[in-house]
């Protein structure tokens, strides 16, 4: 029988791509998403319509915070795995509307964990972010480093999710994997993220804001690489070690719980100005550049050590930004007919 996966956030960028991949591999998927209006809801509707073309996909619109409704949806589905991606995302918006992050990312994540406690799936996988590395400056970031300097409430709520996940894995024996994603980009991407804003600005001849005068580095991860990593990790639930000797070298496995944290990144840091060059080249048109200072809460660089993902799954994301940007631009032109 086909494996049953409950995914939160399937109307979102990453959830859409993950559901698509799992459906193509024969999984049965139930998607749950509140269709928040943080960005254009039409994009979320279009993603959902596409997924609904597959008969093994079903979708329920609902909020994570509505626990009774969430449970009435997930309980009868009896998932083999739960992948929790729905969240209030975005670093900068967390300065404007911090409450949305507490509600979705703390209360919402707690409700998912409570469901997992009772439903006892084979594996609970939840999204965290490279933002939890905060002010850490030893690069590339590895999962065993301390992450105690979140710079925004977004990062703090995601770190809270990791900590809550650890406690539930320990108390209730729920095999739990937390992913730390690094700046994900690609077709069907988020309108609040750099690639989308830069492409739109260049095509519409409006200035693009370049923070820290472009002296920023990001480990840009192509979305199809990312969801491939997630898919492989679904089959790799952590086991509670019996002794410290059971923890393999370089693994972030908890000494007391079936719980690990895994970076999913390209292991390559790209300068923002080089990323913009790649977009300009692909569009055949220069940007009107508005150089600005560093934004409050932003970090100058992220860079993933992705050895653990490779050791666990044999897989390593590797799409070059030029290839990934070209795929995004092709999608953008087709979708918006420009
Ligand atoms: N895209 C990135 O670069 C990136 C980087 C690091 C971490 N992440 C994490 O990956 C996950 C997916 O991100 P994304 O880029 O696909 O974002 P997204 O905003 O496109 O998708 C998130 C989805 O969650 C839904 N949602 C939000 N709050 C909800 C709530 N309270 N109840 C029900 N649904 C709700 C939204 O409607 C949206 O469709 C998030 O947890 C995010 O924090 C993303």
UniProtKB/TrEMBL annotation:
Q: Would the keyword NAD be found if you checked this record's keyword annotation?
A: yes
Note the SUPFAM superfamilies from the entry. Answer: NAD(P)-binding Rossmann-fold domains (SSF51735)
Question: What keywords is this UniProt entry annotated with?
Answer: NAD
According to the entry, every stretch annotated as the NAD-dependent epimerase/dehydratase domain falls at 5-237
Name the Gene3D superfamilies for this protein.
NAD(P)-binding Rossmann-like Domain (3.40.50.720)
Output the InterPro entries linked to this UniProt entry: Epimerase_deHydtase (IPR001509), NAD(P)-bd_dom_sf (IPR036291)
Where do transmembrane segments lie in this chain? Answer: none
* UniProt cross-references to Pfam families, sorted A to Z: Epimerase
Q: What is this protein called?
A: UDP-glucuronate 5-epimerase
What organism does the UniProt record list as the source? Amylibacter marinus
* Highest classification ranks of the organism: Bacteria, Pseudomonadati, Pseudomonadota, Alphaproteobacteria, Rhodobacterales
